[in-house]
Amino acid sequence: MALLQLAQAGCGGMGLRHVYGLAELRRCGFDTFDLAALCDLHRSAAEHVAREAEAALGLKPRVYTDFKAMLDAEPGLDAVNVVTDTRMHHAFALDAFDAGLHAAVEKPMGLTVRACRKMIDAASAAGRVLSVSENYRRDPMNRLAKALLRGGVVGEPRLALSAATYGGRGVRQVVAWRHMRDRGGLVLEYGVHASDLTLYFMGGVERVFAETHLWEKTRAMQKAEQPMQRFYDHRVREEVEEAGAIEATAEDTALALMRFTSGAIGQTTYSDAAPGEPSDTDVIYGSEGSLRLPGSRTGRPIHVTLSGRRSPVGQKDLLGQAPDFRLDEVTSKMFGGRDKMSSYDAALEQPDRKLIAIELQDFADAILSGRRPEVTGEEGLDAVALSYAILESGRLAQPVGFSDVRSDRVSAYQQPINAAAGL
Ligand SMILES: NC(=O)c1ccc[n+]([C@@H]2O[C@H](COP(=O)([O-])OP(=O)(O)OC[C@H]3O[C@@H](n4cnc5c(N)ncnc54)[C@H](O)[C@@H]3O)[C@@H](O)[C@H]2O)c1
């Protein structure tokens, strides 16, 4: 069967990782895509990623610096993969649907709730697939956690606690836009992973009450020992990144309480301005015990501790608690052919490319079979809406209804962002 002809927009850090994801697909026997074309504002970045693609896939994609020019010059395309910074996600997805193409977009799906809604409507009008590349939930450990929760191993979920706190004073991965409110600041950029996982494990949210703050208003442009930093070496700096420091405009800290539609409650904290000991914690308490998530892409085991016990259930017994648990065929092939596992051992970069491969294969299968992708536009919007519910509540200093934010009825925080983006 002919391979799907794919073009990718965005050749920064994540753009490079997506090419490694395509290479991983090929390595594991999935002949799915030809990466026909790449586009980035900066030719040198696109050329670098094109050379990596050629080395890994045996075919050098054609390189463009203008997205529309690429679509015009590539009449044989089936789909585009949008991996630019978040500001362009909706614009490029809309152009793709206009051209009759399917589109996958990186998380966060869109810059605001309104941007996401436009993307959903355009995909539906064009009858094309819109798939959101949310990678964390596809980790085998998160699949197992979901199966354990579904099987009732900790009883009825009551309380979800998550905290991710770091004390950086520098610009995250030396990429300034992550600190800019109008371009999708930290609470959206990083928090949307937590939002997606929260919804995946706990179901719908009813209301949110949050406190938010911007502590580190000036951030230094310095390379730090950060995971994935090496994928950014070829990236071309923006003008604002040429100075020694940037002025941050997006909140770097958020602490939120949530009530779920199930009646459970939760708390989620994110901060990149909490100096000292970092924390990374994710625990769900149910009526019969607790489930501690190991952190996506770590491969560490899940800790299920049952009521009255001091130590967690052993790894072998854990799989016995979810007898129906099976990884899907694609995930299983990516992770060495096993269809169930309670841990895996691999350096971060390995699961990283595997999860990207899995989400891209899901996108392809949705195109070829006509089924929905796992993370549809509506689900991508849910995660964006939850992150914005936190920011909207922080702005209003009062609780907000999730459905009010999701339907764009509560949008004071997003209004200037929408205005700047012409939304
Ligand atoms: N899923 C994950 O784990 C994960 C991790 C990092 C980033 N991301 C997401 O991936 C996306 C890209 O992030 P990144 O870290 O690679 O950022 P980045 O700044 O390194 O890369 C963005 C690239 O897009 C290019 N670009 C911007 N506007 C463009 C335009 N109009 N036309 C063509 N190219 C354009 C830039 O030149 C840059 O090279 C973001 O949406 C981000 O949230 C996801």
Give the SSE map.
Blueprint (H helix, E strand, L loop, with lengths): L3 E6 L3 H15 L5 E7 L3 H15 L4 E3 L2 H7 L5 E4 L6 H10 L3 E5 L6 H14 L3 E4 L6 H11 L6 E9 L20 H4 L1 H12 L2 E9 L4 E3 L24 E3 L5 E8 L4 E7 L7 E8 L2 E4 L10 E4 L8 H7 L7 H6 L14 H21 L7 H20 L3 E2 H5 L8 H6 L3
Parallel strand pairs: 1-2, 1-4, 2-3, 4-5, 5-6, 7-12
Antiparallel strand pairs: 7-13, 8-11, 8-16, 9-10, 11-12, 13-14, 14-15
CATH top level of the largest domain? Answer: Alpha Beta
Query: What ligands does this structure carry?
Result: nicotinamide-adenine-dinucleotide
- Anisotropy-based shape: globular
Q: What strand line-up does the widest sheet have? A: 15-14-13-7-12-11-8-16
Give the proportion of residues in helices.
25-40%
CATH fold type of the largest domain: Dihydrodipicolinate Reductase, domain 2
Rg, Å, rounded: 21 Å
Integer average pLDDT: 96
Written as H for each helix and E for each strand, in order along the chain, the element string is EHEHEHEHEHEHEHHEEEEEEEEHHHHEHH
Q: What is the first-to-last residue Cα distance?
A: 40 Å
Largest sheet: 8 strands, mixed
Oligomeric composition of the shown chains: single chain
Overall structural class, as computed from helix and strand content, comes to alpha/beta
Number of domains: 2
Number of strands: 16
**Assigned CATH superfamily of the largest domain:** Dihydrodipicolinate Reductase, domain 2
Q: Hey, roughly how much beta strand do the residues contain?
A: 15-25%
The number of helices is 14
